[in-house]
Amino acid sequence: MPVSKKKPVAFYQQVAETLKEDILSGKFVSGERIGSQKELEDRFGVSKITIRKAIELLEEENLVVTIHGKGTFVKQEKVEQTLDDLRSLTDIIKLSGYNPEVKVIKKETKLTSPTFSKNDDGNNIETLYIERVHIIEGEPIALAQAYIPTKFGEKLTKKDLENNTIYQLLKDKCNVHLKNAEQSIEAYPANEELSKILEVPTGSPLLKAERLVYSTNDELVEKIIFYYRFDSFAFKVKLDNLSITPMWPTSSN
């Protein structure tokens, strides 16, 4: 609904108040996008500057977070990763309203096992191996171990990897466009090395996620293993009625 010229309130304040009501009423849920710049301009019939000022008000109230090129999202209370779309960990953290820091602690050429690819041809593959620690407010919350085929990895510098997501780098520097991914998640106890990196006691429960990422050419372009501190992350997946299977056999009577 367009803003009203009859109200003794600035346009940007009217927009901010309407969006705030949408968020607090549950019309937009945690982590949901409330619209792109253009979508909000069209919705309220106002200028780009008005929308920007309205979003700034909502950001000051800690209600939303804006990611350049993606839109504005309702801020989450904790880092929560949905399992129905492919996003970088950095973007996921930003969606939760935090400003993440990424530190590369290892970058080297390494031969992977044939399991790098689901098509096991018995040959090792030369890759760029990267270890990156994801940090929020000075505290390490996740470790990512990534393998990228050398033909792509050789184009990526340490500075690139600390200031950009790998997915963005694959697109911008390697002209690789992502199609989909396969991911598995399991519990994993922190060994001595992980304990030191993530600053948790040895044996502490971690969430371990392993992901294979494919390009639009169906080429495997990344294998990555994440180790998340269990107290910092949650995973969520949306199920519709067709995907629900009864746990117990139903009676025919």
Automatic annotation (TrEMBL):
InterPro entries: Bact_HTH_transcr_reg, Chorismate_lyase_/UTRA_dom_sf, Tscrpt_reg_HTH_GntR, UTRA, WH-like_DNA-bd_sf, WH_DNA-bd_sf. PROSITE patterns: HTH_GNTR. SUPFAM superfamilies: Chorismate lyase-like (SSF64288), Winged helix' DNA-binding domain (SSF46785). Gene3D superfamilies: Chorismate lyase-like, Winged helix-like DNA-binding domain superfamily/Winged helix DNA-binding domain. Transmembrane segments: none annotated. Residues 9-77 form the HTH gntR-type domain. Keywords: DNA-binding, Transcription, Transcription regulation. This is GntR family transcriptional regulator. It comes from Oceanobacillus jeddahense.
